[in-house]
Amino acid sequence: MSRSIAQQSVDELGGQSSVLARQRRDHEELDRLMHRYASGGLHAAERQKTLKEIFQLTFSHAFAEETVLWPALRRLAPDGAELTARVEEEHQQINELATRIESTEPDDPRHDELTADAFALIRQDIREEEDVLLPRLQEVLGHDGARLRRLGTTWETVRRTAPTRPHPGVSRRPPGNALAGVPLSAVDRARDALSPPSPRTLWIAAALVAACVVGAALRRKR
Ligand SMILES: [Fe+2]
Ligand SMILES: [Fe+2]
User: Fold this and answer.
1) Are 212 and 66 in contact (CB under 8 A)?
2) 84 C-alpha to ligand 2 centroid (Å)
3) Rounded to the nearest whole angstrom, what is the distance from the C-alpha of residue 82 to the centroid of ligand 2?
């Protein structure tokens, strides 16, 4: 039986740049930020800034999962379709909740209720990935550190150029999400006043996204 990635050493995960170690670091950062938001010790503006950081990390992280990781798991594992459908549904619910949170004033009691619901779903998504999907990916890749590191580099490149806001109307799967991702990312990052990725990173990400689109089209033809 495969072990949760939460219980494995960095070496077992394939090193610091493996996709499994990168996933776990982001999950830990999300947990830290959610605790900070809920701590009660923050001023209103700081609290909203923390919530924005949580959403930026959540949506860029999830977009790269949906375009790079879950298609790989569906290709490699016989039960990949069933496993990924569950987390895509969670991602969709988080997108819908975040959209509702953004349209609610921070002093409205519903704002905190919706935020608590979104945090519960983010935590559920993390558990499902660390305990089930990522160990399954590790298993089908034969615990091969080099492959886990290559996948980690691809995932990270897409994550750095991914949309940073909720988009519940966009497909959670390639090619729909990959096609929408580049223009949405530009708009989101301008609205969030984030520094744009370097031209080289953008070029690589565009090539990866194009590969996702072509791959999905070829699979559909077969
Ligand atoms: Fe994740
Ligand atoms: Fe996720």
Assistant:
1) no
2) 10
3) 15
